[in-house]
């Protein structure tokens, strides 16, 4: 009983800390300023902290619904699980969201495809529904377009045409924009008043839009049908162990290929002088090593992993030579490494390989459709 009380206190304490850190991060995104003094920048105070709840409450609500979707479904399947552990993370220097997410601990061995499916699909679908509500509210309650002048009073000299001028001379990383996915495009087109939609580099100042978009982004990552991600559990249950063992690594290779497409191009080497060529060559070697480490657990044979790595790199170079304008999204490379090296590409085998019933199959393919609707090829645009 004493140990259980300590665990509850830990979980509750982590939630409260995460609420504070996401509120602080939300306020920093909303106002474009920090709580910690930095380079003579005006700091945020109590009023801005309170405003930050407009981000933290909807965002943590979606995250909590997601985790409790897993929790209650696991309990319904007689699988012992913990309550969610929230992971606070506030950098204090901007560009963090105040958390690394949350997780529940599964305390039992899951021996059934059906149980993996039920537990895996419940979280993302539950969170997705609430994310739709948050996005609908955010897009249907946009403030007048002049609102942006309260954040950037320097834009007033350009009026509402600020987008043509404000981003021309920014330093690298000076502006962060939200990319598009099918759902975000739908809400911008059919729900929002077109006259009130902010420039894509200013949407980070609108807390409900930011919270909803991040929810879609993390939902899409969770639903990638690889390994022990929720999407991996779903696909494993849908197609079974034998098919999954070749489908999952194939999808992982495609994902890694897209993430690194355009990072290195043949023209980078051809146009470089001697010093730049050597520097580029060293960077290229580090990139190959990075990919090899990401692919190192895709096969028990090191030679197979190396051949896969080299094949992906060669194909990236060929595509970049044929179509230099084709580029992936290098931000996904971090997730490729985490997935390949730590989370795993394959799925734990289950003792029971019973096929799913029709209702679950429909839900499974619906979840993969949700992945397509939420996935953004370039989720964050950095100037």
UniProtKB/TrEMBL annotation:
The chain crosses the membrane at residues 85-104, 116-139, 206-225, 246-264, 276-295, 304-322, 328-346, 362-382. It is found in: Membrane. It holds the Pfam family Peptidase_M50. The keyword Chloroplast does not apply. InterPro entries: EGY1-like (IPR044838), Peptidase_M50 (IPR008915). It is a multi-pass membrane protein. GO terms for biological process: proteolysis. It comes from the Bacteria. Its main location: membrane. Keywords: Hydrolase, Membrane, Protease, Transit peptide, Transmembrane, Transmembrane helix. Its cofactor is Zn(2+). Residues 55-241 form the Peptidase M50 domain. GO terms for molecular function: peptidase activity. The keyword Iron does not apply. PANTHER family: ZINC METALLOPROTEASE EGY1, ZINC METALLOPROTEASE EGY1, CHLOROPLASTIC-RELATED. Belongs to the peptidase M50B family. This is Site-2 protease family protein.
